[in-house]
Q: What sequence folds into this?
């Protein structure tokens, strides 16, 4: 792009959002040009901070006219490079659109600007005696618009579903610059195609979500957390099955001993119990009355009798419950110092054990010095596969080897009819592998949709699919 073009674009942006809301300093470009993927060099042209849907629509129209690309940006906590601007794009950061309004106690809904932080909504719901259930470790920085764009999942999906299930209505600016108000917050609205669903999880490739009405729920009462030591991976599924038959679980997570040891080594949280097991399951349920607690204890004893569980602990206080959760939630951040290879994959729950074993076998056989760290939302069939870079192995060589790992893993994903991205989206990192989960015909329909909503390919180009 010539410098004339660049200055034309910049002055147009300034005309729309105001001079001080267009940033081109190196610090802003570096910060807003990337997400947590960390493997791409950010190179945006500018970062703009609009305040309203109208301003966003003007920005998108300008992009169509002056032919520049847009990257929508929320809390930038994504792990698939969906919010990376590495090719001179204009980043639209929704941070200033962070108002919560129009709470409706009867409908149990609240309107959020796209820039509302997840935790801000969770706290707001709590103040109203209600609950916003989509939750994950990055809730303190991720934004509602980004959650919708990526259909964020997290640790409570087993009971509450993904972000998709909590969007009552939303406003989007399409890639053509049209403003759509979708679904009008209705529970029942059988009037043909539900366009909401295309933008939810569309990763900003069809348009930008600027506002949304989010549903809230009854607040769960007296949540209890159980951590169980499990000697064999296969037994975790028996444990899940046994507990699900008796209790309505709000979470069922797992992590390996290797993962937990890394968290414990930081010295912030105590070990759950002395017995060491190869894997741990973390369960959460509403212990509203004694009957439910007794029921949980009976299942626990049954699991011990069967040899599926070696030891366990049930939280006796809120602090203990939080500490048990930290054993699971702190893993991702803790292992970041080993420059891990990351993957986020899923299969139907019943196929999880052979699926994991097959992946483990191939990695162990080909690269015996690689340390695999398993954890994830196993109650939903979602595994997080992390591999730590061995000390002394150069980063480049490690990532070259990991590219091979990806191909083996995705071949196994295809064999098990799973997904190459369970909850982290496609972005740039999973784009080359989409065909392991989506058929060619399906991908062609996706391209056709992209052409309808964003004919000039200004919206987050190079993410999810290529035209
Ligand atoms: O870092 C990862 O691999 C997963 C991050 C996140 O989805 C989690 O469940 O902790
Ligand atoms: Zn996760």
A:
């Amino acid at each position: 792009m010539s410098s004339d073009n660049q200055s034309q674009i910049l002055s147009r942006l300034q005309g729309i959002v105001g001079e001080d809301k267009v940033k081109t300093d190196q610090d802003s470009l570096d910060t807003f040009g990337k997400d947590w993927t960390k493997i791409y060099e950010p190179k945006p042209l500018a970062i703009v901070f609009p305040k309203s849907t109208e301003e966003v629509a003007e920005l998108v129209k300008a992009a169509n006219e002056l032919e520049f690309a847009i990257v929508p940006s929320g809390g930038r906590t994504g792990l698939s490079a969906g919010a990376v601007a590495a090719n001179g794009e204009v980043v639209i950061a929704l941070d200033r659109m962070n108002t919560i309004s129009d709470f409706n106690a009867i409908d149990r809904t609240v309107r959020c600007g796209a820039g509302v932080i997840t935790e801000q909504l969770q706290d707001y719901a709590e103040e109203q005696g209600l609950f916003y259930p989509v939750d994950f470790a990055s809730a303190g920085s991720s934004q509602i618009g980004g959650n919708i764009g990526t259909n964020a999942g997290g640790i409570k999906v087993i009971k509450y579903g993904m972000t998709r299930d909590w969007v009552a209505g939303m406003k989007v600016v399409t890639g053509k610059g049209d403003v759509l108000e979708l679904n009008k917050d209705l529970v029942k609205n059988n009037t043909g195609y539900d366009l909401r669903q295309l933008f939810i999880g569309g990763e900003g490739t069809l348009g930008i979500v600027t506002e949304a009405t989010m549903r809230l729920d009854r607040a769960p009462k007296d949540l209890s957390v159980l951590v169980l030591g499990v000697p064999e991976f296969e037994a975790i599924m028996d444990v899940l099955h046994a507990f699900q038959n008796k209790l309505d679980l709000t979470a069922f997570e797992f992590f390996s001993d290797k993962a937990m040891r890394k968290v414990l080594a930081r010295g912030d949280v105590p070990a759950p119990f002395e017995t060491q097991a190869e894997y741990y399951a973390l369960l959460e349920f509403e212990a509203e009355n004694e009957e439910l607690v007794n029921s949980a204890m009976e299942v626990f004893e049954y699991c011990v009798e069967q040899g599926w569980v070696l030891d366990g602990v049930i939280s006796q206080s809120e602090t203990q419950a939080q500490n048990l959760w930290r054993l699971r939630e702190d893993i991702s951040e803790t292992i970041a110092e080993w420059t891990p290879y990351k993957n986020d994959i899923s299969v139907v729950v019943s196929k999880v054990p052979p699926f994991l074993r097959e992946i483990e076998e191939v990695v162990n056989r080909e690269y015996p010095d690689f340390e695999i760290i398993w954890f994830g939302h196993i109650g939903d069939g979602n595994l997080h596969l992390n591999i730590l870079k061995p000390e002394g192995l150069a980063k480049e060589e490690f990532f070259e080897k990991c590219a091979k790992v990806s191909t083996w893993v995705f071949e196994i994903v295809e064999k098990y009819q799973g997904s190459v991205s369970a909850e982290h989206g496609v972005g740039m990192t999973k784009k080359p592998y989409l065909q392991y989960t989506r058929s060619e015909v399906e991908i062609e329909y996706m391209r056709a949709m992209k052409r309808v909503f964003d004919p000039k390919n200004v919206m987050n180009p190079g993410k999810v699919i290529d035209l």
